[in-house]
């Protein structure tokens, strides 16, 4: 048994459910902070005197280190123990949240947001790996991944709602300070109730050079992506930094082929479901991440909604995701398999985004937004548990932390890529129409319509990858060890005698 493997009933069902709650609470804090700042940005700008570009970096300063450190932190979890890495990330994230809440100038806020991103990456990198090693029975694992997926997907919407409420009620500082007591309690509970585990590679090298190369490549790639919306995809800035990221990535690949204990063993790419799930996840997130961002802009800038009403308008999606991922998805996956469920879910997501591609300048929430929330909520509630299960099924127990880090890394890269591409396309289309004399609401709406349609194309790309690359993992009853021996014929018994 792997050093990380946990016996199926170790500690009892109650203790494992408590551990799941602790892991998901930590993950929820991290996900919330990815979106909770969005509706508070105008208040931050007024309070701290942030410039327009500085305002964007309140988000980017969190996103860049989050995407850059996930893979390295996941490997550290495999080597030195995932509980230790998880708790370390929680402590750093909680301390950085306090610094954000106390920030009195832009430099302090942006620096603290960077530390928050690092802490969030360290916390998130091992969460999924700890869940799949705690819950080894297929039905229990599907339900546990459903809970994790609900936290992942619904946390973003909850962040928009909480951000509006806290900002209007007590001020923007409290969207960060509220993390402090929650994080402190989570750290104490994690220390007490999570299983301590010995890492699989205490005697191994951590491949410091490889770690520096891949972290630099990922951070530079995410920086290039998020900066492309300001500088343009064909600018010297974007092309130069993009080339730098590719060179670092090439150097990392060369290093992994020579290192005695590589950070990212080449064998990871021989796992068909790991590679396929990463590609599917990146394209799916690139498409659906725009849903929250662009829908918020449409509701505020075209329909005239305030912060609280905007957040409330996305609650139906969270409710559907919760019901599907927590209750229905595990049953459907157990009955039909993860791959068929994922394929159907991607069709629903693409359909929901195509509906949003028909919004109108004189529209309403119930006619233009709500009908799309139904297929989007159902689709994403089914897709995330199925996709996470497929990704983790392709990795060995010793590499599950690394696979978890890769899975979460692609989520951040996909979100950055999708947001940069789609927001640039929407802004460009709007600017063109405004220059032609089109009224602002109509010009904005046309930009959003174009972006939603491209989003649907991203998800259709994810569907193609999933259909051609992913394979259904064998169920316990399908494995040779689980099948009863076939009855032997009289002839075979005579021959063996």
TrEMBL record:
Pfam families: MFS_1
Membrane topology of this protein: Multi-pass membrane protein
Compartment annotation: Cell membrane
Region (Disordered): 473-497
Keywords assigned: Antibiotic resistance, Cell membrane, Membrane, Transmembrane, Transmembrane helix, Transport
Location of the Major facilitator superfamily (MFS) profile domain: 19-474
Keyword Cell wall biogenesis/degradation: no
Transmembrane segments: 17-41, 53-73, 85-104, 110-133, 145-166, 172-190, 211-229, 235-254, 274-299, 311-329, 341-366, 372-392, 413-431, 451-470
GO MF assignments: transmembrane transporter activity
Gene Ontology cellular-component annotations: plasma membrane
An individual GO BP term: response to antibiotic
Source taxon at top rank: Bacteria
Protein name: MFS transporter
């Amino acid at each position: 048994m792997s050093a990380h493997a946990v016996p199926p009933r170790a500690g009892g069902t109650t203790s494992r459910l408590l551990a799941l709650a602790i892991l998901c609470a930590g993950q929820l804090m991290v996900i919330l902070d990815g979106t909770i700042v969005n509706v508070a940005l105008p208040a931050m700008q007024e309070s701290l005197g942030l410039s327009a570009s500085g305002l964007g970096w309140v988000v980017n300063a969190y996103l860049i280190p989050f995407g850059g450190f996930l893979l390295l932190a996941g490997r550290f979890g495999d080597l030195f123990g995932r509980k230790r890495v998880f708790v370390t990330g929680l402590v750093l994230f909680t301390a950085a949240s306090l610094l954000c809440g106390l920030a009195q100038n832009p430099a302090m806020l942006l620096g603290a947001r960077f530390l928050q991103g690092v802490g969030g990456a360290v916390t998130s990198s091992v969460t999924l790996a700890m869940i799949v090693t705690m819950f080894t029975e297929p039905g229990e694992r599907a339900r546990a991944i459903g809970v994790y997926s609900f936290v992942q997907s619904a946390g973003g919407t909850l962040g928009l709602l909480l951000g509006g409420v806290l900002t209007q009620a007590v001020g923007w500082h409290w969207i960060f300070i509220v993390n402090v007591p929650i994080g402190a309690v989570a750290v104490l509970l994690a220390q007490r109730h999570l299983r301590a585990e010995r890492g699989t590679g205490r005697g191994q090298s951590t491949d410091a050079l490889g770690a520096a190369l891949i972290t630099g490549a990922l951070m530079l790639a995410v920086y290039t992506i998020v900066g492309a919306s300001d500088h343009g995809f064909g600018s010297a800035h974007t092309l130069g930094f993009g080339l730098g990221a590719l060179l670092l990535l090439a150097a990392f690949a060369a290093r992994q082929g020579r290192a005695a204990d590589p950070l990212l063993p080449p064998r990871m790419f021989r796992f068909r479901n790991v590679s396929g799930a990463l590609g599917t996840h990146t394209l799916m997130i690139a498409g659906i991440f725009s849903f929250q961002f662009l829908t918020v802009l449409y509701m505020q800038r075209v329909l005239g909604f305030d912060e609280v009403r905007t957040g409330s308008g996305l609650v139906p999606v969270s409710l559907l995701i919760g019901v599907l991922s927590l209750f229905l998805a595990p049953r459907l996956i157990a009955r039909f398999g993860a791959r068929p469920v994922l394929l159907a879910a991607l069709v629903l997501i693409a359909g929901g985004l195509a509906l949003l591609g028909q919004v109108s300048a004189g529209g309403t929430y119930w006619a233009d937004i709500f009908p799309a929330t139904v297929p989007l909520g159902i689709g994403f509630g089914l897709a995330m548990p199925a996709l996470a299960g497929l990704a983790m099924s392709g990795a060995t127990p010793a590499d599950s932390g690394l696979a978890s880090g890769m899975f979460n890394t692609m989520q951040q890269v996909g979100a950055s890529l999708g947001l940069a591409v789609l927001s640039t396309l929407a802004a460009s289309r709007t600017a063109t129409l405004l220059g032609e004399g089109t009224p602002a609401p109509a010009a904005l709406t046309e930009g959003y319509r174009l972006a939603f349609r491209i989003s649907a194309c991203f998800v259709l790309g994810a569907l193609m990858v999933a259909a051609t690359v992913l394979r259904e993992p064998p169920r316990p009853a399908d494995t040779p060890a689980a099948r009863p021996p076939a009855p032997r014929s009289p002839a075979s018994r005579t021959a063996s005698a």
